[in-house]
Amino acid sequence: MTDSTRPTTPQEDTDHDLTDHDGILRVAADPAHAIVDVDFNPAVLSDGEVRSLLKEHNC
């Protein structure tokens, strides 16, 4: 397949960092233990919105 016809994965569809979203303050990943730690501003984002962003970014 050529690049123009190759299906993209969810990670490839996301062309920006998780920290680019308003309200995300810090992201730390520990792949060895399958942990992603996210600091966020609850005045800007709810827990559910953060979870949705994590799914969007395939975390």
In short:
The protein is an alpha+beta fold and 59 residues long. The chain is 24% helix and 22% strand. Strands 1-2 form a two-stranded antiparallel ribbon.
User: How are the strands of the biggest sheet laid out side by side?
Assistant: 1-2
Sheet with the most strands, sense and barrel status: 2 strands, antiparallel
Distance between the termini: 27 Å
Q: Give the class from helix and strand content and strand pairing.
A: alpha+beta
Q: Mean of the pLDDT scores? A: 81
How many domains? 1
Residue share in β-strands = 15-25%
Percent of residues in helices comes to 10-25%
Total number of helical segments? 2
How is this structure best described in words?
This protein has about 60 residues and is of the alpha+beta class. It has one domain (about 10-55). Helices cover about 25% and strands about 20% of the residues. The chain has 2 helices and 2 strands. A two-stranded antiparallel ribbon has the order 1-2. It starts with 9 loop residues before the first helix and ends with a helix. The model is unreliable at about 1-10 (pLDDT under 50).
Secondary structure layout:
Layout: H1 10-13, E1 24-30, E2 35-40, H2 47-56
Antiparallel strand pairs: 1-2
Features:
59 residues; alpha+beta; two-stranded antiparallel sheet; globular
